[in-house]
Design goal:
- This protein is mostly helical.
- The chain folds into two domains: 408 residues, MFS general substrate transporter like domains (Growth Hormone, Chain: A, Up-down Bundle); 59 residues.
- The chain is built from 16 helices and no strands.
- α2 packs antiparallel against α3 and α4 packs antiparallel against α15.
- 56% of the residues are buried.
- Keywords: Antibiotic resistance, Cell membrane, Membrane, Transmembrane, Transmembrane helix, Transport.
- It is found in: Cell membrane.
- Its main location: membrane.
């Protein structure tokens, strides 16, 4: 059967197996399933952040291990996303989605029963790899299931889910950690994925319609090795550098990753000429909205990687707050993200276009600057109420970016390359997040190490100084994002265009 897409687009992707057209209500049930999976992934990231100090205490983990628990997930996620998207194009997006959500659920169980930091890190790597199979199929399934005129509304819903994940993740993580259910400490933050994942597998098998790329494609094994190697050479030394004393081999690896990336691009060009089945469809970068959006996604990921980890450590270790206190403090931020994300796609972007995203970047930067001033002004006596204004401003700015940016990047992408494009979108953001987490060693822990604090007051002062220093970096990157957004199209294209 044909994919439930607009009739004008059936020549692009005619590999699905259901009888429904655009009016088929099953596609909305399929949307609910894939969005639930996306929600599970989003919650998993935010829920772990809030529980990091508890994991550190319970497993006697070093700061390096804690950093690796978060960055390891991002690294495995980034390294596998392009491959996951292409596998969906080749073998079927439904099949890969079900494989990914099954593996993600099993990896969550392993995380929940981890006996030491090493096992938790390994389980998080597996969880990230399985998410890399699952997440690209979410956007790809949406892209091939809904016609162009409905995608704005659907991506608006997707943005609202992002916001909801941001709202519920920290609070749910705080509650589960604080309650210490059955004496399991932080472990329920992972185990809660089990019933959700099982339901997603059952409902996904029933309601998601299969789709593939219309041409017979093959997996580009050499491309997989090159891009994965380049990502590992860049992110692993950056993440482990501080813990290992910034060895020479780490700097050489990071420099060498540029050469491997260049070799990857050259190979992909040759692969395209040879059999038309590369891992990354380089012609996508001829689409201006896609190329510009990818650059914005990368830099935006850096800001998220730096801010969320530093923010959690600042509140719970620097200020000595409980997980619940920290989670409730972040609630206004999450609500602002969710509200602004819905408004941006539904109301603001159709009227003002690119200016909405640029306003979001500047708004977020203003919130960061307010936060820097307050951290210096109030020191260790700062309260949740005093954090409210900067968090609301930052959340509103982030919400104006997250939902419309996805639509802007994918708006002109040919339907047959939707899996590859979705993988690239998520890969560059995860690359940015992993880079940001690696930079935490420099912009946050570097400041704390210099202070050599031993008393509680000195620790609080050191963490406040590190927090402010990290936020200056975040503000600078947000200004860069604002400038990059000038390369985005002023308005969304009315219909998708094919790339020659």
């Amino acid at each position: 059967m044909t994919s439930p897409v607009a009739v004008a687009d059936t020549a692009i992707d005619t590999t699905t197996t259901s009888s429904g057209g655009p009016g088929d209500r099953r596609r909305w049930l399929a949307l609910a399933v894939v969005m639930t999976a996306a929600f599970m992934d989003l919650v998993d990231v935010t829920i772990v952040n809030i529980a990091i100090p508890s994991i550190e205490r319970d497993l006697s983990a070093s700061f390096g291990s804690i950093q690796w628990i978060t960055a390891g997930y991002a690294l495995a996620f980034a390294a596998g996303l392009i491959t996951g998207g292409r596998l969906g194009d080749i073998y079927g997006r439904k099949r890969l989605f079900l494989l990914g959500i099954t593996g993600f659920t099993l990896a969550s169980a392993l995380c929940g029963f981890a006996a030491n930091p090493e096992m938790l890190v390994a389980s998080r790597l597996l969880q990230g790899a399985m998410a890399a199979m699952m997440v690209p199929q979410v956007l790809a399934i949406i892209h091939v299931t809904f016609p162009a005129h409905e995608r704005g509304k659907v991506f608006g819903m997707f943005g609202a889910i992002v916001g909801l994940g941001a709202v519920s993740g920290p609070l749910l993580g705080a509650l589960l950690t604080q309650w210490n259910l059955f004496g399991l400490e932080w472990r329920p933050i992972f185990l809660i994925n089990l019933p959700v994942g099982i339901a997603g597998v059952i409902l996904g098998r029933k309601f998601i319609t299969e789709s593939k790329a219309p041409k017979a494609l093959r997996l580009d094994v050499v491309g997989v090795v090159l891009v994965t190697g380049a990502l590992l050479m860049l992110i692993y030394p950056l993440t482990r550098g501080r813990e290992l004393g910034w060895p020479l081999w780490g700097h050489l690896c990071m420099a060498g990753s540029v050469l491997v990336f260049a070799a990857f691009v050259a190979y992909e060009k040759a692969k395209t000429r040879k059999d038309g089945s590369p891992l990354v469809e380089l012609s996508l970068f001829k689409v201006k909205s896609f190329a510009a959006g990818i650059a914005v996604q990368l830099t935006f990921g850096v800001t998220l990687g730096v801010f969320f980890l530093v923010w959690t450590l600042y509140m719970q270790i620097g200020l000595g707050w409980s997980p619940l206190h920290a989670g409730l403090t972040g609630l206004p931020f999450s609500i602002a993200v969710s509200t602004a994300a819905g408004l941006s796609v539904q109301k603001l972007v159709p009227r003002f276009g690119r200016k909405v995203l640029q306003c979001g970047a500047l708004t977020m930067a203003v919130g960061v600057l307010i936060y820097i001033w307050e951290a210096g002004q109030y020191g260790s006596d700062i309260t949740s109420w005093q954090m409210l204004p900067p968090l609301v401003v930052m959340g509103a700015g982030m919400g104006l970016i997250v939902a419309p940016l996805t639509d802007a990047v994918l708006s002109d992408v040919p339907r047959e390359h939707s899996g590859s494009a979705s993988g690239l979108i998520n890969t560059v953001q995860q690359m940015g997040t992993a880079l940001g987490l690696g930079l935490v060693s420099v912009v946050f822990f570097g400041v704390i190490d210099d202070r050599r604090a031993t008393t509680p007051d000195a620790v609080a002062t050191a963490f406040a100084d590190g927090f402010q220093n990290a936020l200056w970096w975040v503000a600078a990157v947000l200004v860069g994002i604002f400038l990059l957004m000038f390369a985005l199209p002023k308005r969304r294209a009315a219909e998708p265009v094919l790339v020659a």
